[in-house]
From TrEMBL:
Domain Putative restriction endonuclease: residue ranges: 11-176
Organism: Crocosphaera watsonii WH 8502
Name the UniProt record assigns to this protein: Putative restriction endonuclease domain-containing protein
Domain of life: Bacteria
Pfam families, alphabetized: Uma2 (PF05685)
């Protein structure tokens, strides 16, 4: 349970608080706890990271990260999957990956969990788009759909056999049906 402070926090104060499970986000001066991932969410998150990394990691195009805190524009969010172009992955002076990502992802993916507000999740994706994220996905397993969020906060609904938009440069083709079929065990 997230304890609400008696006085409003600023971002810098939030960032020094201990991490929680599930993670908390700092949005417009308020702390929001993400829901605990369940079966569908966890499976989709893992498959997405594996599939994207299989296509994009070896040629050093991009890298997908699960549950990575991204702090930019005054907010600190934790997309279910954050994809960064290889050249934008923050590094230390020794060339190792940085612990803090203080930039927006290039592709932000959120998976709607049961009883989670679609408006709040969409708000995070639109926020990312406002700050330069090239592509967002909102996967809704219950509705069997994926919303694509594009620059200038344009939104498009995808269903069934429709090809999904992929971050430019990644050699990957997926349909909504293929993504949601990862949930089936026959």
């Amino acid at each position: 349970m997230v304890k609400t402070p008696s006085k409003p926090l600023i971002l810098e104060e939030f960032l020094i608080l201990p991490e929680t499970k599930p993670g908390t986000e700092f949005i417009k001066g308020k702390i929001r706890q993400k829901p605990m991932p369940q079966g569908e969410h966890s499976l989709l998150q893992g498959e997405l990271c594996e599939t994207i990394n299989f296509a994009a990691k070896r040629p050093q195009i991009a890298r997908a990260f699960p549950e990575l805190r991204c702090t930019f524009g005054g907010n600190s969010i934790i997309p279910d999957v954050s994809v960064f172009r290889w050249s934008r992955i923050p590094k230390t002076s020794a060339g190792k990956i940085a612990n803090r990502f203080e930039i927006h992802p290039d592709w932000s993916i959120e998976i709607l969990s049961p009883r989670q507000s679609s408006t709040r999740v969409l708000e995070n994706l639109l926020y990312c788009s406002q700050y330069g994220t090239e592509l967002g996905w909102l996967i809704d397993p219950g509705e069997e759909s994926i919303l694509g969020i594009f620059p200038e906060q344009k939104v498009q609904l995808f269903r069934g056999k429709q090809q999904l938009p992929i971050l430019t440069g990644i050699d990957l083709q997926l349909t909504v049906e293929q993504v949601l079929n990862w949930l089936k065990f026959s």
